[in-house]
Amino acid sequence: MERSPGAVLTSSPEEEEKAADGHGEEAVEQEEEAAPVVLKKGPWTTAEDVMLVDHVQRHGEGNWNAVQRLTGLLRCGKSCRLRWTNHLRPNLKKGSFSPDEEILIAQLHAQLGNKWARMAAHLPGRTDNEIKNYWNTRAKRRQRAGLPVYPPEVQLQLALAKRCRYDDFTTPLASAQLPGAANVQALDATSAGYTSSRPAPLDLARQLAATGQTVQFLSPPPFSAPSSPWAKPFARNAQYFQFAHSSPVSPSTPTGPLHRVTPDLSLGYGLRSTDQSRLATLSPSLGRPRVELPSNQFGQAMPPTSAAAAGLGGAALPDHQHQNAASLEKMLQELHDAIKVDPPALAPANGDAAERHAGGGGAVLERNGGRENKLDGQHRDDDMGTLFDMMIPTLNAPETVPLPPAAAAPNHSGSTSQYSSDDQDPSTADLGVDLPAAGGASPPDQDWGLDGVCQWRSMSRIC
DNA sequence: AAACAGACCAACCGCAACTAT
DNA sequence: GATAGTTGCGGTTGGTCTGTT
Question: pTM of the entire structure?
Fold first, then answer.
């Protein structure tokens, strides 16, 4: 919602408006002879907007410092540029963020940190300022409320990514075996050319794909979700699996279509197909082996074996799928051990998974007593949520994953923007946010505050 | 109805990177 | 290579709106 540009609040709005209105290029010359121009600050007037738009139409974007000189607009170049990019340029999308956009922002923030401009590149029609404002207000509000900053689905990504760093995925993954050339390209892009001393990007999509699940790019569906994604139950979540740190995003990443990596994560708990089409994932570099690290995330060193496995390439081995499936199964087993239930059977590494997925059937857990039941997809969603509930405290247990101070206690200022983009790890800081202290009680309102699906409450059982 | 607090948003500022000279 | 100018980015501020007391 944009405020009326006519709301001039400067000290002498009338005079300034007059000045702005009356100037053509001839009037400028007069000013140049006069005393130094006092540039205006504050809200833009309609007349100023018109002048700026006219200037851009004539001269194109750029050379912003010339705007004042050429048009007499009493604004500095920076202000002109800002006004243009944030409000006047065509194809800007105004209004509140759609649920899909919200989810995407959370994903992007999990991956990039406070790289608003880069995030904006993934949200056509949105500006960095808009995203920044959105995130800061929501994040602050959630932090104040003692809620995790990221929605569960993003936390799951981070949790799994973090977890997997400590798993011994010793086998190079066979991207060449992935179905679909685009997939291979995209997934390879997450690792090829990764020359930093930082840990190699972890890409669970790849791992999942190696288990035989399909990984595919979907066309960008319109942002049309009817309700806030953060209000949704957990389940669709396991959808996006380009993980933090896994897909370098460069400023030159096309700002148009959003590319999605959507593994069919039917590892016994399944996802609804309708969910799958909705979730955006972080755009890979579309095959370019560009090396540009995200500003943060996963600063911790990955064990060498994991680093090697996590995407530095390598020849495909015939048994990759089984090995990785076993790793994932092991992970699930551990998670289920924590909650004293049996893990769901890992889906076979072939079409069977998709079949189960489509049918909504399959053995899933019933939390009560660990009995297995045939439940519908929703219940499987819940089970996945339970898994996640268990995952977070496990992952953040001090003996396994030391949390940076920011993770242990939210920033005193309540801001999410204070970490150094290179030094801090929002995947840990924010992932772990607001976890109840060991032995402590969960915050009273630990759900996402929107649909009452509170999986976090169960944490007290294991903390 | 008034006061207050929080949310929201536009815009500014400082800094860094980039480019031209 | 040094310098100046330009552009882009992220953090912050301050005004307005809206809901609550």
Answer: 0.48
